[in-house]
Amino acid sequence: MKTRFTSLDWIALLLLSIALSSMVWGIKSGVRGVDQALFTPIWLFGVIAAYTLGRYGVTTSRSWFAMILIGIGLFTTTSARLHEPLLQIAVSFPRFEMQAITQFVNREPIDFSIIRIHFEEFSHEAEGFLAKIRQVLEGGSTSPSVREALWDIPVLLTAACAGWWASRGKPLFALIPSAGLHAFILYYTNERPLSLQIEMAAWIALIGTIQGHFRFTRATHVQTRTFQESLSSVFLLALALSIGAGFIPVNPINEAIEKSSTEDRLSETLGLERMIPVEFASSSLPRQHLIGMDPSLSESLVFTVQTGEIPATDKELIQIQIPKHYWRWLTYDIYDGYGWATSSVTNRGYSANETIIDLPDFNYKIFHQQVEKIKPEDQRLYWAGLLVQNDQPFRAQWRVSPESLNPGVEPVLRVDMLGALTGQKAYTADSLVPVVTQNYLRATSANYPNQISDMYLALPDIIPDRVLELAELLTSEFDNPYDKARAIESHLRSYPYSLEIGPPPEDREISDYFLFESRTGYCDYYATSMVVLARASGLPARLVVGYANGEYDPVSATYLVRERHAHSWVEVYFSGVGWIEFEPTGNLPPFSRQSVIDMGEPDLDLSQRRESHQRMLESFQRNGRFPAASSHRTLWIATTAIPLFFSVYLHRRGWTILDQSIYRIYHHLRALGTWIYADPPLHETPSRFCEEILKKLPSNSPLINIARSELKYLIGLYVLESYGPSPISPQELKRANKTWRRLFWRLTRIRLVQFFQSAG
Question: How far apart are CA 657 and CA 653, in angstroms?
């Protein structure tokens, strides 16, 4: 039985602590209502108690019984905040004892009031906690203290499992429960994986440490030294794999979670919810009830946009049509009859000038925009069309990201973004806009990808029959998707526009209320009703939130977008084309397909269109157009991954800044020497191996002569260590390591020279 902790035991506990604290960090970042939870005492108790009991050979049943029993009391005390009254009882007890002794000696009644107050406070807190538990069991809301207690259970069990398996010399199993729980929380709630990367690094380092620890306690001097030499490689590998873990796509995991789980009572109780970040909530168009906000008109400027399509002029614009653009912010897909929401999203960060989607060779052109936001606190990214790249770092929320698509799938037809954020006040963005004629859209098929149909044809069951009948009436005479969409758009545009109308009754479906009762409204009513009618007619449709064109200033060639330009409109999906904008709101002009074509030159091939765009926007590009995007992921690989793997390679070949045993040096020497002396026999002695290498080395170079002497010296030390009466001294070993480092590079240079000579 082990009787004391070694330094490697403390290293193992430190690595376990790093891993478990990272898991707790992940829980707090992904779970609502546990920001102030006291998880640290729970996991500290679990890991230390389990590691200590396992280290000293206590039986499994006794160990786990004691840990669970004490753990229940501990997490009940912390989650119910009973530690404060318990501390007051402990502090007041010595005073009570002194007072009780004095009163007993003086034959006076013992006064229990000193501790009675604190016991009553303890009882009150405990009863309140039990009442909160009963409320949850009866279907009520979950309080933060109960949610903390629920999460204390997996925290305790995963910490105890980690300490127990680590103490038994099985680090591979130690952190499987905590890492699995950690990964599930982060991917379920779409949080960033940094905390998981830290846990993975600690886990890999723990594997090397624990495995070596159990060898260390009963190893020979040579084995011990060899283990110590390998620690640097273990930590280097841990760093490499943990960094790489941040670049592993998580979309398949997210999709699996979505297929296997629903937003049910359990996830609400535990605080797990796929939430839109608070920055993605729009002040005028909220997530849960888009229609229910008062549409206030404001002259305050939100942002300005320059596109370079029309040069600046100090003269009045005559017979020039101002291009129409809508500046998008959010795109909604789920309609429940009372408001709009989004399905599950994943967060993805992009660096400056990183390309999201390449220009396809059909139906699209590049559109440039310089945007300057007015309010410094505005984190939104505004753009028109399908975002391609931005000259400032930003992060996007995807329902379907480009990285999640299968090979061969055209991104412009399948990607689906909720919105994007950037902390920069001014930025320049590239996007894609469609260039198609009305006849082209009429010729598209009514067969849609399953993912599009499943998501964008869905309607709630509460849609009244008369709404469905109206959709059938409006579209029955048309045999193509485009004319059906235009028929719905034209019908809605006949309704009068008004801001003097409140939200619909809470129990009324929005489109039915607008179409058959109020028969007047503002943009949210029009857009919602068109989406409902389009989906009822078999047309995939979604609602877009953002800003309309704005005011155009010809002097500065700038769009001035104000609060009163806040708008919502509709996009309909066309097979082989993608999403096309429609304007059902009556007070704004509809989109003109012909005006888009005049700007796009769709009949040119891909290379010609790129050149045409470049010439058309040449003056704009001189005034701030950001350069062509470079592959930052490739740059990251070149500057980080390659040196990292080269370092691992050097470690395997024996070059390291740490001292190694003479046995390890000889092992590396034989591996490196095979470059010069190929296929040496396994039974060959060290001296014979040295002689064969010396024969094959040229003798006409000072570099080679020095390598000869260093090789003889190291081989001699190895023979002395292996067959001599006593091991070599620490000073001699230190000198051997310095000699090996120099010889390593000399042999490498010799090999390179021989390679190029043979190639020449």
Answer: 13
Of 158, 187, 188, whose CA–CA distance to 264 is shortest? 188
Alpha-carbon distance of 515 to 368, in angstroms, equals 38
Q: Exposure of 387 by Cβ count < 10 A (0-12 exposed, 13-18 middle, 19+ buried)?
A: buried
Q: CB of 311 within 8 A of CB of 619?
A: yes
Q: Strand, coil or helix: what is 114?
A: helix
Closest CA to 718 of 739, 697, 696: 739
Cα separation, 749 vs 416, whole angstroms: 54
Q: 422: left (phi > 0), else alpha (psi -120 to 50), else beta? A: beta
Residue 410 · residue 362 · CB < 8 Å: no
Strands 301-306 and 558-562, sheet pairing: antiparallel
Neighbours of 94 (CB within 10 A): 9
Judge whether 158 and 181 are in contact, CB under 8 Å. Answer: yes
CB under 8 Å to 598, separation ≥6 — which residues? none
HSE toward the beta carbon, residue 630, CA cutoff 13 A: 6
Q: Which two tokens stand for residue 340?
A: 């709009």
Rounded CA-CA distance 612/618 in Å is 10
Instruction: Give the helix, strand, coil percentages of the chain, each rounded to 5.
Output: 55, 10, 35
To which residue do tokens 């396994």 refer?
A: 682
d(CA 284, CA 294): 8
CB of 119 within 8 A of CB of 89?
Answer: yes
Question: Which residue pairs from 210-219 have beta carbons closer than 8 angstroms and sit at least 24 positions apart in sequence?
Answer: 210/12, 210/166, 210/169, 210/170, 210/171, 210/174, 211/169, 211/171, 212/8, 213/6, 213/8, 213/9, 213/12, 213/169, 214/169, 216/6, 216/8, 217/2, 217/6
Structure tokens at 98: 């002194």
The kind and range of the H/E element at 144 are helix 144-167
The DSSP code for 476 is: T
Burial class of residue 25, CB neighbours in 10 A (0-12, 13-18, 19+): middle
Strands (DSSP E) contained in 98-175 are none
Helix and strand numbers, DSSP H then E, in the chain: 28, 15
Classify residue 12 as exposed, middle or buried by CB count within 10 Å of its CB (0-12, 13-18, 19+). Answer: buried
Low-confidence ranges of the chain (pLDDT < 50): 1-2, 215-224, 226-227, 229, 246-264, 275, 278, 281-295, 595-641
**Distance separating alpha carbons of residues 198 and 201, to the nearest angstrom:** 5
- Tallying the residues shown for the chain, one arrives at 760
- Residue 107's SS3 state is coil
Q: In DSSP terms, which residues pair with 416 in a beta bridge?
A: 400
Angle between the 662-673 and 221-245 helix axes, to the nearest 10 degrees?
60
Q: What is the pLDDT of residue 473?
A: 95
Spatial neighbors of 5 by CB under 8 A, at least 6 apart, are 55
What is the model's pLDDT at position 267? 54
In a 3-state reduction of DSSP, which class is residue 302?
A: strand
> Are 335 and 398 in contact, with CB atoms under 8 Å apart?
no
Evaluate whether 656 touches 650 at the Cβ level (below 8 Å).
yes
500 contacts: CB under 8 Å, gap ≥ 6: none
Structure-block tokens of residue 62: 């006794």
Domain boundaries, given as residue ranges, for the chain: 7-269, 278-292+302-622, 654-759
- Right CATH for 278-292+302-622 from 3.90.550.10, 3.10.620.30, 3.50.50.60, 3.40.50.150: 3.10.620.30
Q: Give 142's DSSP letter.
A: P
Give the C-alpha separation, 706 to 712, whole Å.
10
Residue 250's pLDDT is 41
Please state, in angstroms and as integers, the Cα–Cα distance from residue 675 to each residue in 278, 365, 386, 669, 696, following that order. 60, 56, 55, 10, 11
Strand order in the sheet with 578-582: 327-332, 541-547, 566-574, 578-582
Query: Is the Cβ–Cβ distance between 257 and 273 less than 8 Å?
Result: no
